Amino acid sequence: MKRLRSALGVFIVLLVCVSCSVLPIAEKEPASSRVVPSSAGEQIVIYALGLVGIDYRFGGKNPASGLDCSGMVAYIYKNALGINLPTNALLIAQIARPIDKNKLRPGDLVFFNTLQRPFSHVGIYIGEARFVHAPGTNGKIKISSLESAYYLRSYQSAATLFP
Prior knowledge:
By secondary structure, this protein is α+β, with helices and mostly antiparallel strands. The protein is built from five helices and eight strands, in the order ααββααβββββαβ. The strands form two sheets. The chain has a six-stranded antiparallel β-sheet with strand order 3-8-4-5-6-7. The chain has a two-stranded antiparallel ribbon with strand order 1-2. Residues 1-36 have low confidence and may be disordered.
């Protein structure tokens, strides 16, 4: 009987020790490993940057077959925010609210006169005087500078679709 109590005592001590031991807890994926945009403008920029390198195609409305400048803007706003836009730079400019160039925020729009007609080209401002656009001459969606000589000459206006 004494032996049984002794064995039971040892068992209880072991059970307490095991139950009190610290087991490693599986770590969740750190939040910093996933990009979670905090604003609508950031969502637009993330979509725009994801299209860099996609082929240009006049009248193009989806990345699989290529995009032109207004098709790119419409595609991005639709997929990032669910906003339907026309696929024409002039019509987009008529919907957007004009803003001063120095008030541009990521996700806003920049318009250019590149074909000797107003609002013939549009891009998405991404910050630091840069924008993403689908230039027909290069053949691929790319990032350009608003401060380059060509875009300084052809710059027409800035606009936003955000409140």
